[in-house]
Amino acid sequence: MLDDGERARAASFLSPRDQQRFTVAHGALRILVGRELKTSSPMLAWILGPHGKPMLAPPWSGLHTSLSHSRDMIAVAISADRPVGVDIQHLVPGLDTVGLSGRFFPRDEAEYVAAGADAGTRADRSAHLWVRKEAVVKAAGGRIWSNLRIAVRGRDVVSCAEPASSHRVADMTAPPDFRAAVALAGAGPFVTEALDWPGGAC
Q1: What are phi and psi for residue 48, nearest 5 degrees?
Q2: Residue 132 CB: number of other CB atoms within 10 A?
Q3: 167, 139 Cβ separation under 8 angstroms
Q4: Distance of alpha carbon 60 from alpha carbon 52, whole angstroms
């Protein structure tokens, strides 16, 4: 199902578990996009956009996709008419969320994380903000480190710093101990349909 480049990237992981995660994630993306386009999944190809974001190559370039994986969870987003970004993150126990948010997030967001009553709450708040930022950055095709200071808390429309652009972001349903968000280019509202694939809605 994967192309030569994807197989090479999978093989570059030292851990067999990481190789499997990469293979399953990219295979799932191909299957879901192939179903949406009613085409053979192995025929699909992605190219790098102006800022390094993978984009479907012609003749499928009218469809927008995004992929994220964390631990054993995969999130795939497909949009018919607007660039899309999705992110899912596992809550990492023992991570210095206060220190990291203080270093990288805007002051009010860092204070929001630090004000959590316990380590679990602080990890939850940090992951919630992180996935919103990363979803926006993926939709924009930018780099996460230059955009960590964009304000996302309590906002439906977020201004990406690099490349400068506006995106609408929304939290997504995620399994326990995970947080997820999706963003689309532009300020216009959108409707999401979340599916626990290959089963039903989640």
Answers
A1: -85, 130
A2: 26
A3: yes
A4: 18
Q: Residue 10 corresponds to which tokens in the numbers above? A: 């999978």
- State the pTM of this model: 0.90
For the chain, what is the largest distance between any 2 Cα atoms, rounded to a whole number of angstroms? 51
The predicted model gives 12-27 an average pLDDT of: 94
Q: Is the pLDDT of residue 142 over 80?
A: yes
Task: Specify the 3-state DSSP secondary structure of 180.
Answer: strand
Residues paired with residue 56 on neighbouring β-strands, in sequence order? 46
Residue 85 and residue 69: Cα distance in Å, rounded?
Answer: 13
Other Cβ atoms closer than 10 A to 18: 12
Query: Are 64 and 84 contacting, i.e. CB atoms less than 8 angstroms apart?
Result: yes
3-state SS, 146-171, equals HHCCCCCCCCCEEEECCCCEEEEEEE
pLDDT of residue 29: 94
Query: Distance of CA 36 to CAs 29, 30, 40, 143, Å?
Result: 11, 10, 10, 28
Separation CA 59–CA 39 (nearest Å):
11
Cα–Cα distance between 159 and 177 in angstroms, integer?
28
